[in-house]
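assembly run, all chains below
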Amino acid sequence: MAEDGINSFMTGPDEKGRFGIFGGRFVSETLMPLILDLEAEYEKAKTDASFWAEMDDLWKHYVGRPSPLYFAPRLTEQLGGAKVYMKRDELNHTGAHKINNVLGQIILARRMGKTRIIAETGAGQHGVATATVCAKFGLECVVYMGAHDVERQAPNVFRMRLLGAKVVPVTSGRGTLKDAMNDALRDWVTNVRDTFYCIGTVAGPHPYPAMVRDFQSIIGKEVRWQLAEQEGEGRLPDVVVAAIGGGSNAMGLFYPFLDDPSVRIIGVEAGGKGVDDRMEHCASLTGGRPGVLHGNRTYLLQDADGQILEGFSISAGLDYPGIGPEHAWLHDTGRAEYVSITDAEALEAFQLCCKLEGIIPALEPSHALAHVMKLAPTLPKDQIIVMNMCGRGDKDIFTVAKHLGFDMKI
Amino acid sequence: MTRIDATFARLRAEGRKAFVSYIMGGDPDQATSLAVMKGLPAAGVDIIELGMPFTDPMADGPTIQLAGQRALEAGMTMDRVLDMVRDFRAGDATTPIVLMGYYNPIYSRGVDRFLAEATEAGIDGLIVVDLPPEEDDELCIPAQKAGINFIRLATPTTDDRRLPKVLQNTSGFVYYVSITGITGAAAAQATDVGPEVARIKAKTDLPVIVGFGITTPEAARAIASVADGCVVGSAIVKDIGAGKPVAEVLANVAALAKGAHSA
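ok done. output:
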């Protein structure tokens, strides 16, 4: 697709790890040789058939891929417009899309001879996925998690511990996801020889944004052939919609469609209590501006002096003040649209999905679904929307109960 | 010749090692921080590193993290860091000042504007932890053009293959990070550091100063003896964080400086 001299949206990043001005390698010198090693190893693995054979085998027999592409008939009927399909990545082992990427990184870590895996986690889904794959391969696993999230997400903390991981509550800064990432980086800079940092989203220094995107792209690749199977050869979605915190499930769905100009691409950020209110949201693209944090340049929530602000969302998985650099670039080039959905709208979508489709979604994809609820009625009935149901809601029932005023204590 | 170059020329002529101290700008408040800063040269400090507070100091240990938080909570901004430098310069035209911190507050301000203001305020060098040589076009090259030294960190993971790249656009001095880790962590050993400094000095004429993990006058002496000088940060910041009076903070700085200068 040729627009403004851009022939393809799928060639990034460049050799400096940039998507336009975004991305890069903004890390301390101690880490620089490590990420160059990782880049070299990943480049080798990418074209190594045995690497992908191992991935495919585990995706199939351990994760349960391909995940179904499900036509949601009652939701479609209720909304009265475009047909709504759900990509059911919540049916993966461990209950979310996170494991798609973790498998790739852990196989890579094993190829590199690393014996100790560290990760950051917000809601705990990436932490659980990392702890799971480490248990499977007998690797030491340390997960950094904001102290506040450790309290909020007790079931996931217990899961990680059952799986043999050490969960470190992070009290530095304000004890949130971004502070967990800071502490993971501090661990990595200290334990450079044996440790592999398994990042959970399409952010961080190059090559992480591209590598995590590549591993998650299995989502969009499956959607392509699954939709053709159900709707006829060559039929592409008219719209793809996904929720965005750091943006890994969205990049995974979007990437295989970037060069199909007929496919409209929409990312949904967490609007919290509303993007107009003073900083009670996590909408980096709609409410932030470009800055440098955690190894990459991207849109960040920050004050006038360049100090990073805390995000706010009902969903702990979207609670990050940045966004993957490729999203920042897709936003600036106009290839993808980014909107925001408030907590209240996400809660409404959550309940509707439970009642109409018998699927309890996580709060993250509930944001995507809430936008589908706005969009579908405005589109003709022969159009197709695919939304990414990237996680299941078991982890969120306590939060939702609280917001609905339901007493869970028996 | 920058103030940094002039300082090293003088120290070389005197046959002395450099003592570099780090404090966080505005910790615990601007007035106290400025009082400490003004007392550093008389306490024996040859070069002052002034921290620019940042919410997310990925390379720093708890001591300097907390110092940054105290400064930000007391209302510290980049404007005020620059004001501190101007106030200091009004009474001291020779002691080099190196701003140390992270890129985002500089990027947010705009590199050109920042460099113009930094030059005008009397800043001599920059250490920006999250700008490796791969990102030299961002700030390193423009800073050198503006006459400000860009001081690079070399680390134990910087192998011989990579060292030339790290040294290429470095000026003023080379800051050797003595350990893999964060500030204020494990103690550096002179026996480990010596060969590393020699390895770097074989590739550059710039002075090599060693930092991270130096907390006592004895350690300052031991490390300075195998390099061109040493940096102490967390040990000083810890005193400030404990609320010690300025005179007591400076007395400890003087003891550390004496250690380094006796090397």
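The mean pLDDT of chain B is 96.

The beta strands of chain B are 18-24, 47-51, 97-101, 125-128, 149-150, 153-154, 174-177, 208-211, 229-232.

not gonna interpret more than that til we talk
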